[in-house]
Amino acid sequence: MVKIPKLRWVVVALLFSSAGINYIDRLTLSVVVGRVLHEFSMSEQDYAHIVSLFLAAYAVMYAGSGYLVDWLGTRLGFALFMLAWSAAQIAHGFVSGKWPLAACRFLLGLAEPGAFPAGVKAVGEWFPAGQRALGVGWFNAGTVAGAALGAPVAALLALHYGWRSAFVLTGAAGFVWLAVWLLIYHPPQSNRWLSPKEFSRLRAQGIGADAVPPTGTERPQVLRVLRSRPCYTLTLLRFLTDPVVYFVLFWFPAYLEKARRFDLAMLGKYAWVPFFFGGTGYLFGGWLSGRLVRSGVNTLKARKLAMLAGACLLPTAIIAPRVPAAHLALAAMCLVMFGHAVWITNLLTLPTDLFRGGEVGTATGISGTGGSIGGILATLGIGYVVSHFSYEPVFLIAGMMHPLAAILLFGLLPDSYFGAREEVLPCAA
Description:
Layout: H1 7-39, H2 44-72, H3 74-91, H4 98-111, H5 115-126, H6 129-161, H7 163-184, H8 196-204, H9 222-227, H10 229-250, H11 252-259, H12 264-270, H13 273-294, H14 299-311, H15 326-354, H16 360-388, H17 392-412, H18 415-421
Helix pairs in contact: 1-3, 1-5, 1-6, 1-7, 2-3, 2-4, 2-5, 2-16, 3-4, 3-5, 3-7, 5-6, 5-16, 6-7, 6-12, 6-13, 6-15, 10-15, 10-16, 10-17, 13-14, 13-15, 14-15, 14-17, 15-16
């Protein structure tokens, strides 16, 4: 049989594209929201309710999706979620009012979170500790590529074929990805496309050994994960910081339209720029912690230092609504997205360092649920504040969350704690 050279980077390319599709699908509504609100006679508060339903489903299913991915295995679990969210995305194109739209959004929220436990788990199956953050960085860079492409693609489709086509055609891309994934993906120890020579190199790095139990032979120890300090700390950190990127995704285009007088064509032209900088942040964040590890810094300390560096950039959000020109506001949000990307790349990598292979998806899912709950509360608050006041208080709070979370990170997970717990926090490789 023909073998695929450098197969793990082909896997990374698949993960990158899956994250891109995921974010294109979730971003489409925020780009065409003006036309949707007009056609269905909906208010900004109605839009906030619909976004909150998406996030509620996302929160409920994030933890469940991590458990399912651990139980079903990366290949089948990821395929199941891609199938479900692509079908939900297409269904958006056939809605007739607020509540059918809300139902489709709810279904999308149930399916989309499965991509992230599955993607992190896949990186853990193919990369050693010193390279995992870079693998997660490439995976997460796909979210930024999707967000960057989502605005111009959705705007172009809406302008030429109507807003409904934007949902149908972007949803169809998921089915193409699904066929390729099912054809190619298996873990290294059972992948028919992996050459013996490359597998030997992976084994020398600790990849493809028996650290990850075969699917179905060992259920994730959910209570053990829930009770652990790393789990509730990561959950708290995501509760505080995930809402910032939800704000950029769901509300920043609307801010540009309302406060900076952007039309749909201008949104398609410029709204992607902060996400491009986010993409470079994902790669830089992965490179940075990996570089620290290779220089001799303890793996967990390297993740924390990289997260601190990213958090220091987030206060620039405070100046975005205060600057006189729209391009300066965009520049401020570019730094916000870059800093958040450095932060979240390493935060998402931590479960692969702190939990057994069969629990990585579960831990990622539980912490992601915390982020989604934070996003729900923030979205409801943003809808109220924007409707009754302005966007300025929202930018102020967004700029404060990551520095606060960084303080909690160093307080709740000090280096001394990691040293004491090292023997009972086995790697997932």
